[in-house]
Amino acid sequence: MEHIIPAILERNFNEIKNKLTILHEQTKCVHIDFCDGVLVPTQTWPFASGGFDDPNFQRIQNEEEGMPHWEDFDFEFDLMVADAVENFDIYMKLGPKRMIFHLSAQKNIEDFEHFLESLDMYIRDNVEMGLAFELSSDLEIVSRISNKVDFLHCMGSDNIGHQGEVFHSKALENIKILKEKLPGVVISVDIGINLDNATEIFQAGADRLVVGSSIWKSGDPIGTLENFQNLVE
After folding, report:
1. Are 136 and 168 in contact (CB under 8 A)?
2. DSSP for the chain?
3. Phi and psi dihedrals of 24, rounded to 5?
C-alpha cells in the first residue's frame, strides 16, 4: 500500500514540537531527520544545540520524558550521521518505529552487515531497519544488503541533509531497477517530492513518499498534506 510520510528537518527542539503539534491527528507516521554536520554539512537537533548533551535530548535519554506526542506517532528516524551504528543504543532510546541507516556512512560494508545480522530479535520484531542510498550508490551493494533490512530508502538527490532539493530522474531509474531485481522489496523515496511528481514516483514502484518542504513551505501544511494523502486514497 502507498503511503505519504511528512518529514521534519529542524535545528530547534521547540520547532520539532511545534510541527508535531500541527501534524497531530493528521498522520500516524512522521519522518525526523538527524544531521550531524559530519556525514552531511547541515546540523539538526540535537547536534545544532550541544549534541548528546542537549538538555531535551538528555531528558529523553534519562527517560524523564519522551519525544513530543510520542504516544500518538510512529517515528521514522533518518540517521544522516557518521555514528549511527556506534551509537545505535542512544538513538533507540528516542523510541523509533523505523531507523534509516545511510550506505554512504558505512566505512566497512561487511561490518555493517554483521551489525544488522546481530541485532537483538526483540528489536528486529519491533523496529524496522531501512537502508538509504543515493543516486551515485552502487545498486549491487544495495541489493546485497536488501535482505538484511526491512526496506530501502531511495534519495532523490546526492545532496542530502537539506530540504528543498530538486528530485532527479535517475532516482526513478533506480526504483524501477530495484523493483524488478528484488520482487516484494519496500522502497521509500525522499527529497524533491511534490504534488506534480508524486504520482510518477509511485508509478515507478515507490511504496512510501517522504515529503518535507512541499508541505512546510506551502503556507498551508495541513491542506497540502491532505492533498498528498488524497493521491493514495
Report:
1. no
2. --EEEEEE--S-HHHHHHHHHHHTTT-SEEEEEEEBSSSSS-B-TTGGGTGGG-HHHHHHHTTSS-STTTTT-EEEEEEESTTTTTTHHHHHTT--SEEEEEGGG-S-HHHHHHHHHTS-HHHHHHSEEEEEE-TTS-HHHHHHHHTTSSEEEEES-S--S-SSPPPPTHHHHHHHHHHHHSTT--EEEESS--TTTHHHHHHHT-SEEEE-HHHHTSS-HHHHHHHHHHTT-
3. -55, 130
Measured in whole angstroms, the distance separating CA 189 from the mean position of its chain's CA atoms is: 9
Q: Which of 58, 78, 60 minimizes the C-alpha distance to 69?
A: 60
- The one-digit pLDDT tens for each residue of the chain (233 residues) are 799 999 999 999 999 999 999 999 999 999 999 999 999 999 999 999 999 999 999 999 999 999 999 999 999 999 999 999 999 999 999 999 999 999 999 999 999 999 999 999 999 999 999 999 999 999 999 999 999 999 999 999 988 877 778 999 999 999 999 999 999 999 999 999 999 999 999 999 999 999 999 999 999 999 999 999 999 97
